[in-house]
Design goal:
Number of helices: 7
Strand content: 5-15%
Low-confidence stretches: none
Largest sheet: 5 strands, parallel
Length: 170
């Protein structure tokens, strides 16, 4: 069983890329946004950034979903800070590969401005970038620049995860 977390700031494409990646490798996809308690969604909808006390139960839910999956699983989760990724790895009870969707503030702001029906307002984008600690060289992570099509990003991640595993499987 393989566990993946598609990570990055809001608006980078975690749900769309995660869904496409999961489909390409025959895995289950879980949208981490669906694991937020209602209080978190309400807070972000008001334009208030989450703090660590807000994130704790959510990160625990993400880790539990990874740990309880019956097969390969992909979860979209911002996982912006190293300590959040550490909590996810510990709670999942096994290896986790992070897939970091990286892009410029301007590119992501444009995407956020074009989407409809999402609780995360554009006003919180700067706080997301301020909180972002890109994965370090000691973390199992593949970083991809999202300045290409969604299909190209998914294809890149499939190839890189196959190379990382070294067994021809994603």
């Amino acid at each position: 069983m393989q566990r993946y977390v598609v990570m990055g700031v809001s608006g980078c494409g975690k749900t769309s890329v995660g869904t496409g990646f999961a489909k390409a490798i025959g895995a289950q996809f879980i949208d981490g946004d669906d694991l937020h308690p209602p209080e978190n969604v309400a807070k972000m909808s008001r334009g208030e950034p989450l703090d660590d006390s807000d994130r704790g139960p959510w990160l625990a839910a993400v880790a539990a979903a990874l740990g309880q999956a019956g097969g390969d699983v992909v979860i979209g989760c911002s996982a912006l800070r190293r300590r959040y990724r550490d909590l996810i790895r510990e709670g999942a009870g096994g290896d986790v590969i992070f897939l970091h969707l990286s892009g410029s503030r301007d590119l992501i702001a444009g995407r956020m401005g074009a989407r409809e029906g999402h609780f995360m307002p554009l006003t919180l984008l700067d706080s997301q970038f301020a909180a972002l600690e890109p994965p370090g060289p000691d973390e199992t992570c593949i970083t991809v620049d999202i300045d290409r099509s969604e299909a190209q990003v998914v294809q890149y991640l499939v190839r890189q995860t196959q190379d990382l595993r070294g067994d021809g499987r994603a």
